[in-house]
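Methods: holo model generation. Sequences were used as deposited, without trimming of termini or removal of tags, and paired with ligand SMILES retrieved from the corresponding compound records. Each pair was processed once, and we did not select among multiple samples. The sequence and fe (ii) ion SMILES for this entry were:
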Amino acid sequence: MSRRWISLPQRAGETSRQAHADLPAGTFERELGKEGFFGPATHMYHRHPPTGWTGWEGPLRPRAFDLTKLAGETGSPWDAPLVLGNAQVKLRWWQLAGAMEFLARNADGDELLFVHQGKGDLFCDYGHLAVKAGDYVMLPRSTMWRLDAPEPPGEPMALLLIEATGGSYRLPEKGLVGQHAIFDPGVLDIPQIDDAFRAQQTESRWQVKVKRRGEISTVTYPFNPLDAVGWHGDLAPVRLNIADIRPLMSHRYHLPPSAHTTFLGERFVVCTFAPRPFESDPGALKVPFFHNNDDFDEVIFYHAGDFFSRDNIRPGMVTFHPCGFTHGPHPKALAGMLTPKRNSTDEYAVMIDTRDALDPGPAMAGAEWTGYVESWQPKPEGPAKKEGAKPEGAKPEGAKKAR
Ligand SMILES: [Fe+2]
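and the model returned the structure below.
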């Protein structure tokens, strides 16, 4: 028997006519939503910012981690520390200096690399692909690959690895906006059987470290098994650079994060926030609305730029908002809710929303900004201003652009 939602549009008290625009004077809008806001949802108008808490106890809380504080390079992606994970997705933070000395093969799921820093050369079953900061590289499950970062003193690479455990990556349906919106599929690059690939096809001993069910097995060959002379088919790694993403926006409506969906996993999505103009309609919200995404945990990795809705967040940091509370813009962004002091964002960030609860990895204890839960509290004015909870290296108050 098919099911349907207990869902009847209703209205009570003072409201706007439609979401995210022309809010009742002096109110703050909150969106409450099921199914990642694709199910029943309500917009509520509050007298106070819903993040105005003054105390918090218990295990559930907003969390933030500074991945740049994690220990240094590892030659193996399988030694990269777990940032957050559940049965369907694993986020790892990998720093690599120099060339990998073996091939990796992830038999647990498709692997999505996001290059945060540096550049290098990826060699895989399918050929050679140069990679640089801002690239996503989707490696189908069980692809054999290795990454060569510049040898020291060259810049090491830093990557976010997003494993679709037990699953596959797909592209979202583009619906009303058509197949060439957000990015034209023509910008997806594939590895090439080129001179660099042929040059690495040696007869020397190579090992493949295969990850299956979280455990590593090692297979030894007397030659380099990346020895294809050609291939054809519709299964291959793809590269997408965030500079090729042309985000959707509306001058009259603050689009939800789902408009920025880049890849779909089985029970999670990967979205990309890229620079875009702010809404220009006088009554339209210019910042993310307060919301509780009641069926999802939300993660954002900050890659580059000035993060307009977050105070004291720098590139290389991660915020983690498990479901169960309302979150939204920080105080300085909220001050520009309708009248931002600039007319565009310049941020690049990767968002991962998961249907099932995430747990931080054990290494995250050393990288956590424990004061994050208090970061929505307006800072007291004057010489008694408290700075203690701010993460090390955060920009001074005056240097951050309020929007
Ligand atoms: Fe959120």
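Residues 308 and 403 are 6 Å apart (CA to CA).
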